[in-house]
Task: structure prediction
Amino acid sequence: MKKLLIAGVSALMLMLSACGTDEGSKTGQAKGEDLNLIKKGEFSFAMSGQYPPLNFKKDGKLTGFDVEIGTEIAKRIGLEAKPVTNQWETIIQGLKAKKYDAIIGSMTATPERDKQVDFTEPYYLSGAQIFIADGNNEIASKEDLKGKTVGVIQASTWKDMAEELSDQVKGYPSDVNALQDLELGRLDAVITDKIVGLNAKNEKGLKIKEIGGLLNEDRVSVAVAEGNKELAEKINKAIDDMLADGTYEKISKKWFNTNIMEKQ
Result:
């Protein structure tokens, strides 16, 4: 009888132990323990901190579109957001050295970078965009640039694009100089990065507008350590959910007055 009692107690203990292990596993997954995070319960993501309005410091605190997107991703995974800065030149090396869990710093996914990290689906789209003055109703597409004066940054890939569309291309030392001349009527159009143009329009108040689709497309994505498919999948799910419930568009319009996931 004693042997039967002992056997019964042992069996019960094993069952309880198994249940406890299963529950602990679920809790661990909720805390991100299956995601190979640098620190339990935290999602650290890096950026340069020098690229307003995407990521920059205000009153000593990191802010911007990238920061808000990263914070929302962390929230949806069930982790505490920890945005950090790293010099852009070594930001991939920092990820590989496990200084942080991801890069959410407006990094374009390229084949070369993909050899070192794993990328999620894009969290915004950028690329070369045509901008014209607000009052210009003559230009509606890239085909209308023929014979028009187009401003671009000197020695840029955008200069090559502009020269394919017009024989009157003017080089500038910076995007801002070109966009200011556009507003003043000294140029018919400017080709520059979509985000740069939108920032000049919304933050600097330049009276310009974008027309046509992107001339090329940059898929700006979250980078995670190579092989960390679980984390990449969680991030993709979070971004998809943000797009579906309107949270993404709300954040995007706060910073750019438009949805920058849309091509136009």
Summary: The chain has two domains: 38-125+220-256, 128-211. Residues 1-30 have pLDDT under 50 and may be disordered. The CA atoms of residues 242 and 248 lie 5 Å apart.
